[in-house]
């Protein structure tokens, strides 16, 4: 039996005192999906620095979670120089 500890929330609007939408609160999985879409379909140079950082951090976290053999930087540079 698997018990999920994550709760999914529908997106919620952040409204100012006049009822105007000033932001949106997303579930973590929705936010990650949004970042993946930005990374895939946006011009990187036009993205604000905070979104570039968020995408970089998400990709770095995913890379750390990947299983497999690690390679030292020296070995990686040697592979790159041999081509």
Core attributes:
11% strand; mainly alpha; two-stranded antiparallel sheet; 2 strands; 83 residues; elongated
In words, what does this structure look like?
It contains 3 helices and 2 strands, in the order E-E-H-H-H. The chain has helices at residues 28-41, 49-65, 73-81; strands at residues 12-15, 21-25. The protein has a two-stranded antiparallel ribbon. Helix 1 packs across helix 2. The longest helix is centred in the C-terminal third of the chain and has 17 residues, at 49-65. The radius of gyration is 19 Å and the shape is elongated.
Helix count, DSSP H or I runs of 4 or more residues: 3
Strand adjacency order, main sheet? 1-2
Unreliable spans: none
Structural class comes to: mainly alpha
Give the CA-based shape.
elongated
Could you outline the blueprint of secondary structure elements for this entry?
Layout: E1 12-15, E2 21-25, H1 28-41, H2 49-65, H3 73-81
Antiparallel strand pairs: 1-2
Give me a quick take on this structure.
With 83 residues, the chain is mainly alpha-helical.
